[in-house]
Automatic annotation (TrEMBL):
<protein>
    <recommendedName>
        <fullName>UPF0056 inner membrane protein</fullName>
    </recommendedName>
</protein>
<dbReference type="GO" id="GO:0005886">
    <property type="term" value="C:plasma membrane"/>
</dbReference>
<keyword id="KW-1133">Transmembrane helix</keyword>
<feature type="transmembrane region" description="Helical">
    <location>
        <begin position="184"/>
        <end position="205"/>
    </location>
</feature>
<feature type="transmembrane region" description="Helical">
    <location>
        <begin position="41"/>
        <end position="63"/>
    </location>
</feature>
<keyword id="KW-0472">Membrane</keyword>
<feature type="transmembrane region" description="Helical">
    <location>
        <begin position="113"/>
        <end position="136"/>
    </location>
</feature>
<feature type="transmembrane region" description="Helical">
    <location>
        <begin position="6"/>
        <end position="29"/>
    </location>
</feature>
<feature type="transmembrane region" description="Helical">
    <location>
        <begin position="142"/>
        <end position="163"/>
    </location>
</feature>
<comment type="similarity">
    <text>Belongs to the UPF0056 (MarC) family.</text>
</comment>
<keyword id="KW-0812">Transmembrane</keyword>
<keyword id="KW-1003">Cell membrane</keyword>
<dbReference type="Pfam" id="PF01914">
    <property type="entry name" value="MarC"/>
</dbReference>
<dbReference type="InterPro" id="IPR002771">
    <property type="entry name" value="Multi_antbiot-R_MarC"/>
</dbReference>
<feature type="transmembrane region" description="Helical">
    <location>
        <begin position="69"/>
        <end position="92"/>
    </location>
</feature>
Amino acid sequence: MDLTLFFQFFLGLVAIINPVGLLPVFVTLTSHQTEPERQRTGTIANFAVVVILLVTLFAGQLILDMFSISLPAFRIAGGTLIVFIAMSMLQGKLGEVKHNKAEDRESAARESVAVVPLALPLMAGPGAISSVIVFAAENSTVMDTIGMVTAIVVFGACSWAIFRLAPVIFRVLGQTGINVITRIMGLLMLSIGIEVVAAGAKGLFPALAG
């Protein structure tokens, strides 16, 4: 097992999902809740994210085969999506790809926001799902799968801890500090997206690899 590979996968999840950057959204969505209710919302949201990503990990290739989508084509589509999200993150925003105003209004009317819109689509959004599918398709051995499952579970635990400390972190960093972290994550995410697109283009057009 290449531990470096799975560390990169873990860092990719951190950059794409960006739990620190989502803290203002989490605090806003749970502003009407008591502290125990907010902690419960954070726990449910992160558990849901882990479940969604694990299902994606095991069913991703099946979905591609079902729709006869080649891995290179999906790499280009997924990488392009990651690039779009990264561009909005570089401006300190979540972007309409992750959520839009209509979803904001709908979520405000919900009593529970843990699964929708917090877990899906804000955390386990299109970028994270496409990243997991691409990585799983490229690394399909049993040991690879164990490594990816471990990385997803560890990410879920770290994200849960960040959400649990949300009020403290938000007060310490402030909106400016969170925006700086979001922009850094956006830059890393943009690099990941470009790499994925380039790999997909080489797969579709082998002449480019020469």
